[in-house]
Amino acid sequence: MEPMETQQHDHMHGDRHDVRELFKRYDRNPILTARDWPNMVNAVFNPAATMFDDQTLLLVRVEDRSGLSRLTVATSADGYSDWKVDVERTVAPDLGSWAEHWGIEDPRITVIDGRYYIAYTGFSSAGPLVCLAVTDDFVGFERLGVLQVPDNKDAALFGRKINGRWAMLHRPIATTGRVEAHIWLSWSPDLLHWGSPVPVIEARRGGWWDAAKVGLGPPPLETEAGWLVIYHGVRTTASGSLYRLGIALLDRDHPERVIARGNEWIFGPCAPYEVSGDVPDVVFPCGWILDDDGETIRMYYGAADSCVAVATGRLSELMNHLFLHPMS
């Protein structure tokens, strides 16, 4: 191991819960809390993640004590420690618009041709909807408008055109006797106008860990085998909803086709900062980064809708697990 790898490995740990999980928590989690903000806020969570100017950049959902959320930049040289919060680099909700009247939430960043596209949830008076913005420097942000009408959220773009079109995963909710909440894929010629929707990853029924609803985590990660997707699944229990994570693989050229989907959850709330907070028993990633070694994945997630944490996995282990534990 190189010295940096040794140092990072020393900061990872397992316990009786996550020894079987494929992501290992950083032992100095949480990495960001409301106390790290220079102004008074209620909670910080659900960050998008990317590399920018040789640093790890998180675009963090910041919930003010009003209850409304905005998105603020935090950066770190090593992606684990010494985070610098820059409240001047903030995407504030346009409270005068119908689309963002009650704030903005849960961003996902996709790099396309050197620009940073941010799919995020606008909280409108009609319900959540999908919005898109773009930036070159995380100082100025250009809003490109609403992509999906309510109720719709958990959206992210694919990083390149596929067969001449752009693709996006998102999560509409339709109420037809029971709440249906599946992950869908839509297509666009220009990143602005979207159509041809098709369900891709459906919530299961019965006793499954993802029986109530599913939603996309970070943007799809392209690998030689296909687009790797991590998603949250929700199971309703007697004590409330439990959010855990699973993985699936989509075809590289036809991402509406699921090559493989795991039958087990791979990461779930068990650390104190995950099981206790504004919304207990939640792990909710919106960003991950594949390191230059092509193997190490850093997953950044919101814990209990209260703070930001990071866990590290290995791409090869995720892929092996996916094919060893297929959905029947």
How are the elements arranged and paired?
Layout: H1 3-10, E1 12-13, E2 24-26, E3 43-52, E4 55-63, E5 69-76, E6 84-91, E7 104-112, E8 115-124, E9 127-135, E10 142-148, E11 152-157, E12 166-176, E13 178-181, E14 183-188, E15 195-201, E16 213-216, E17 221-222, E18 227-237, E19 240-250, E20 258-261, H2 272-275, E21 283-290, E22 296-303, E23 307-314, H3 315-324
CATH class: Mainly Beta
Q: Multimeric state of these chains?
A: single chain
Radius of gyration: 18 Å
Low-confidence stretches: 1-19
Largest sheet: 5 strands, antiparallel
Distance between the termini: 38 Å
Secondary-structure element order, as H and E? Answer: HEEEEEEEEEEEEEEEEEEEEHEEEH
The pLDDT mean sits at: 92
Strand order of the largest sheet: 1-2-23-22-21
**Secondary-structure arrangement, i.e. CATH architecture:** 5 Propeller
Shape: globular
Q: What would CATH call the homologous superfamily? A: Glycosyl hydrolase domain, family 43
Strand content: over 45%
Count of DSSP strands: 23
Helix content: under 10%
The number of distinct helices, counting runs of at least 4 residues, comes to 3
- Classification by helices and strands: mainly beta
For the record, the count of structural domains works out to: 1
Task: State the CATH topology.
Answer: Tachylectin-2, Chain A
